[in-house]
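U., I forgot to send this yesterday:
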Amino acid sequence: MENKYKKEMECDRITTPEEFKKYVSKLSKINFIPGTRKEKYVLDSHDYSNLKKGLYEANLHVHTLNSDGSATTERLLLNAEAIAKYNSKFNTHFMLSITDHDTLEGTKEAFEIYKSHPEKYSHLKLTTGLEISTVENKLENQKSPVAIHLLTYCINPYDETLNEFLKKKSQLKLKLTKETIKELNKELYNDLGYEFTLKEASQVHEMIAKGFDEVKRPLMKYTSGKILHHYYIKDSDFSYEKPIKTYKQIFKSSEPYYKLYKKALEQYIGYSLPPIPEHIERQILKAKSIYEKSHPTMNTIPEAFASFEETVELISSLKYGYMSVAHPARTIIRNICDTPENIFTNIFKNFKQSGGEKACFYEKYYGSYEGEHTLSLLPAIDKAAEKFNLKPTGGLDSHGKDIITRCPYT
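Result:
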């Protein structure tokens, strides 16, 4: 399969690593976003001014149904080709990368569709991609693990080492999830009178049933939502995940998740609910004590999770592949006692030391940041990246039906 991938690059059907670096180096922020936001902190409120002028030239962060997106790979390719064809009127181009979480299936599909139908995708530039969920516990002054997502580009999607790595992690994580749900039912069934299921958990976080990304956070959303939903309105005509998906902004607060869920539930049904009783709160916290055992600690990263440095080292050992630190300002740094610039300097230092020349990008032009605190971190991140000569990439982190929006629910 390595020769197959190499052949396609030589036939000018897939962007080579050299072409990728050259193309991305010419792009700036306006080329990664479809337009200016009408409201600064509201996602998908763009005026599409860049798109209309042929200046929207790349989305290097896109998800399909293979992870937690809501569109097929083919639909997104056709959307990207339409933009690329439109851009040709302005003598500009468009590059797409499918970067599904913890699986190469989306980028394999893109690879096969793209190379098999040159007449349908004659304008589009395509590069292979992947987003890997990793855990970092080796930073200075760190009190708890942090999640760092790693974007990889120009990879061989058929590389046996990489495929086996991802397969093993997803199998182990799915096993861990099932064991955790089993323990939840063992400890809570007598109190609640109903069971938790993997199928229900996947309604709020699709990837948990695939063994991708996290275990703790999806189960936090699921158990909190189901317990409260069942207590307050167990005979309702909607399921527990609807308030979560409808009122995403409510969950940006630092309050305990279950308290935020109650607020979202009240918004959804249109009236106030009585305070959460002590016995219900105890059940929610008991569930928390169980699913938190599945999460990495400062001392131990379970085999089901990918450590940041080890994953970077793995990608750097492959024949093909560049790496970019995904949406760095979304990295949770509250539990690190240091300045933002020092924290990201530390992250990027570990990135470069573990990845060498292939650890050369960071997602400076991430188009879906929201919230004042997140945006306030960007100058410190840029200063830290300059110390290691990291070059910018960008994307919308699209989860929807097209590649010009972020939201998966539209």
